[in-house]
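Thread title: Can someone regenerate the structure for this chain?

I was given the following input by a collaborator and told the matching structure tokens would be attached. They weren't. Posting the sequence so someone can regenerate them.
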Amino acid sequence: MLYRSGTLPNRAYLPQMAETSVQLPDGRVIFVQKYEVSVAEWNACHAEGVCSEKLRPPKGLTAADAPATGLNYLDISQYVRWISERANHPFRLPATKEWEFMAKPVLPEKPDPIFSDPSLRWASDYLVNARKPRRLEKRGSFSTNAQGIADLDGSVWEWTDDCYVGESGTVSKQRCPAFYVAGEHMAVIPFLVRDPARGGCAVGTPPPHLGFRLVTDKKI
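Best answer:
Regenerated them for you:
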């Protein structure tokens, strides 16, 4: 991360963070962005020539209200480096275990499977999740957990920083073929995919939208 240790953050670039920090089971504390990164926040990075993709909010939403979606892992890596430098604060994506811990209180109970045959579990998961609304909603439309983190149960699946390698063993982050994305269910998305609905989901039911939120280990 490109930030200057020992100097104050640049508050003009700091995102809105949740009111309360998250105390993890292993004793660590993290600080989490209240909402997913918005189209307006993303386009500030594009306007400075760092993020290559320019986004438009969907019809009926403003750039400030709309989550930034249609982004792959490389796109988001550009943003994370940019915001860490501009805000002079070390931001990152959450790990899957961190995301699952803070989302657990607001995620619905897992529905009963449609098929009892274990070999048809994939079909059961697909049909159950296909029933759910997939329309992109404005930020703040879903639940807020006890720490003040919003929309973890929303229509956007969030990129994590955990690499998926299947049975191939370990691989460096730079050579990782796919990453976990987190929402009402976990899925695995190849790092170059922006639209999982078009056959881009490596493992799990394809999520409707891909976005992200920032976390930091350092109090602002």
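Strands lie at 22-23, 29-32, 157-164, 178-182, 187-190, 210-211, 215-216.
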